[in-house]
Amino acid sequence: MKTQSVSKNESQTSSTPTPSIPSLKWSAITVFVILSWVLCQWLDGIKSQWYVFDPDTLHQVAKSALASSNDTAGAIQHIVSTLTETYPSSRIRLNMDVNEWMFNNAGGAMGAMYIIHASITEYLIIFGTPLGTEGHSGQHTADDYFYILEGEQWAFEPGQLKSARYGPGSVNYMPRGTVRQYKMHEGCFALEYARGWIPPMLPFGFADTFTSTLDFLTLYRTVRITLREMVRNLLIGKI
Question: Which residue ranges does the record annotate as region Disordered (predicted)?
Answer without folding.
Answer: 1-20
